[in-house]
Amino acid sequence: MDKNNATHRASNESVLTILKELKKSITLRGDLPYVSVKKQLDILDDLSSFPLGRFFIERKGADGFWTDYIINHPQVGAITGLNSQGLPFSPVEKFILEKSPLTLATRERFSIFQTHTQKFLKKDMKIASIPCGVMRDLLSLDYSQISSISIFGIDLDAKSLRLAKELALQSSLADHVQLLEKDAWNLPFNNQIDLITSNGLNVYVSEEKKRIQLYQGFHRALKKRGALIIGALTYPPGYQKQSEWILDKIPPKDLLMEKIIFQDVLGCKWRNFSTLNELCKNFYSVGFTNVQVISDQYCIFPTVIATK
């Protein structure tokens, strides 16, 4: 997969405009009790110096390519010491990739998805990743004991679908993969899918009603006794609802730096959180009969396995 492909780069013109607006906003807001204006502007300048940071500045979140980049850092960048441009990591990119509690939870969530999806695999089943991103969650599994399988990747992002196609062609699964440019709220399935995996969509949806509609669509697409494996974010410290993060496992300086980067400087869009109890209620409310929650070590990005 070409990591220098322009399709996942932020627009330089757009980034410069947003950068100017962010600097103005930070300056007008003034020093915060825990971080100065100068420190925030230094972080913003660092973010603007590497492709992942520029993408965050422009989009306030990660697409399929950058999510894959973050998840696979231990097998790639951590070994080479070089980022997507082939340059040494800046302090902020190194923090995001190696110390950010959210990144570490995301990586652990991916591993949990892999473990439990593998357990569900059986012959003649239909599985779907929605949204699929580059679809490494399904394409990197072991299908050596599976005689027949149908794999669907659904995403609205044509760039992610092209990368998923590339990854499928590199594997022995290309003939079993169908990629569809579809809206997750308008799925072309009705009681047809054995297993759905979903990550990275519901955390960007602020309206609970719309998240419930998403879960209803997943429920409708699944066969009876089919399963949904999905991730969700719990409340961080400082919100109205009590945080369930296990703070004694998170270095305070890393927790603070993450807040400064993603909340104070960037204002990222993944600001949609649930308590573990709210998560279970949501899935039971749309008809799932068994809901299991598997937490990462920090209880930041738990995995939900819901059975129809």
CATH class of the largest domain: Alpha Beta
CATH topology descriptor of the largest domain: Rossmann fold
Q: What proportion of the residues form beta strands (DSSP E)?
A: 5-15%
Question: Structural class, from helix and strand content?
Answer: alpha/beta
Distance between the termini: 36 Å
Main beta sheet: 7 strands, mixed
Helicity, as a percent range: 40-55%
Question: What is the number of helical segments per DSSP (H or I, 4+ residues)?
Answer: 12
Shape: globular
CATH architecture annotation of the largest domain:
3-Layer(aba) Sandwich
What Rg is obtained from the alpha carbons, in whole angstroms?
20 Å
Strand order of the largest sheet: 3-2-1-4-5-7-6
Explain the layout of strands and helices.
Elements: H1 12-29, H2 37-47, H3 51-59, H4 64-71, H5 77-80, H6 91-98, H7 101-120, E1 125-129, H8 136-139, E2 149-154, H9 158-170, E3 177-180, E4 193-198, H10 208-221, E5 222-231, H11 252-265, H12 276-285, E6 290-294, E7 303-307
Parallel strand pairs: 1-2, 1-4, 2-3, 4-5
Antiparallel strand pairs: 5-7, 6-7
Give a brief outline of the structure:
With 308 residues, the chain is α/β, with parallel strands linked by helices.
Features:
43% helix; alpha/beta; 308 residues; Rossmann fold; disordered N terminus
Question: How would you explain this protein's 3D organization?
Answer:
- With 308 residues, the chain is of the alpha/beta class.
- The protein has 2 domains: 6-103 and 252-265, 3-Layer(aba) Sandwich (Rossmann fold); 108-237 and 245-249 and 268-307, Rossmann fold (3-Layer(aba) Sandwich), CATH 3.40.50.150.
- Helices cover 43% and strands 13% of the residues.
- It contains 12 helices and 7 strands.
- It has helices at residues 12-29, 37-47, 51-59, 64-71, 77-80, 91-98, 101-120, 136-139, 158-170, 208-221, 252-265, 276-285; strands at residues 125-129, 149-154, 177-180, 193-198, 222-231, 290-294, 303-307.
- Strands 3-2-1-4-5-7-6 form a 7-stranded mixed sheet, sandwiched between helices.
- The longest helix has 20 residues, at 101-120.
- The protein is globular.
- It starts with 11 loop residues before the first helix and ends with a strand.
- 36% of the residues are buried.
